Amino acid sequence: MNAISMQPLLTAPDYLIGPFYSMVDNPNFSARTQEAKLLVGVTGQGKTHYTATNFTPYLFDKHDMDLVVYTYPQKEILDTGEWFQGLTATKTPGTQLVFGNARQAMDYLKAGVKVIFLTTHRGFVVEPTGKELIKYLKKSSKNFAIWVDEAHSWMISDLANYKKGTGNNISVYEATLFTALQELSVKTPYIFGLTATPNREAKGVITPIGDMKLSVINDFPPKELLISSTSWLSSTSFYDPKSPNAEWEMWDLVEAAVIKLYNDYFKTGIKKTMMVSVGNEGCRSGLDSDFVKSQLLRIIDNNALAARNERTIAVMTSNKQKTGTFSYNRPKAATDDDENSIKEKLIDQEDALRFVIVKQKGRMGMNVSTLGSLVYLKTPDRKDDLGPFTESPIQIMGRLVRFNTGIDKDEFVEKYGYDLTKYVRILGRKQKSDLVIANSIDMVLPKTDMWVEASDTFAKIYVSSVQQAKSWMRSL
After folding, report:
1. SS3 for 99-138, per residue?
2. Taking the complete model, does pTM exceed 0.85, yes or no?
């Protein structure tokens, strides 16, 4: 990774803030065109938060921006509150915040009004009005910056690099986002990306095809600096999909994980939830959403963990007819819950919903603080001569990193900030023990090279262990 050298810093956000300001305020920064600069950081470090509330206001106030574009892969991952905070923070009067309407953003710019434009990747580089905005920026003298969230996705430079970069073999890939940024990067050095999992082009393992290079401009913080703002890893169990008894071993581990999820709640009174990733309908393993749902409902009922009329399981897929919540009594009668409603029920400490089965979901947009357990029931092993592709597994595991105290997030942040330190200091021994249980992560994963290496990296870089958390608590 082509990161700048840094002296040890005091807080995890310093590993984002210091490199960013040092870079953009460098007298030679204006020469760094045809380059996308990536900030890397783990979940909970505040990549998007600081982009919205610090970096973007700074670009307007100190670098005379006319436009800052923040583009993201899915609507579900956008936290509008952070961007309203950023709008309040800027000292540049009259700045307008525009959501998804490229035409409105252009009208404001043509009228001399400064704009923060929030849009999806598709809205920016695929939709006609987004393309018009790009064309306008290439011709105008407006000073603009672009932030690309989840910059590992949509950012492979060319079809020829797609399999080398992601491990996936596809026949059609137009690199629309990379191409648009490449064209705009000729005019401006202010092209930035945010990601927890830089891809191989960003790491310099393979060379991007084209005229724009990718550079990682910071380092990951030592994980101990994040121990107060993340959950903690408790256990990782593997089932061997090649074992003669693979199915029995897998379901034994799943049943144990389900029972532990409820037992953790019974001990602490703090709800935890589980994400279960399954295959497509008709997959060779048979582990599709319908079958896994029936098995989970059976496990819950056999162990008398919930009442039969409680809707304990949600299914979240691209098929809206299958998306909804289910009970043992009504295993095929879905509610009309959409993805947002399901997430709200997972977070709600009083709701019976404990499990969400996901198909082609779960890598992004699953900002659910109660998630403390992951069961992965697919067995891909994408790798090549350069090694396993670990970015996607780490993204999925990263959904479990947000801390869980059982207290509403807004209420907690208002009292203690987005940090557990002040909260832990007021807890008694039993309450600390409960927090360790509630804020811990358990995973059941396939024993493939891809998942084994990804889980090792996750444990080394992204999360602290329960044992480390206990030691940290004793030090306060």
Report:
1. ECCHHHHHHHHHCCCCEEEEEEHHHHHCCHHHHHHHHHHH
2. yes
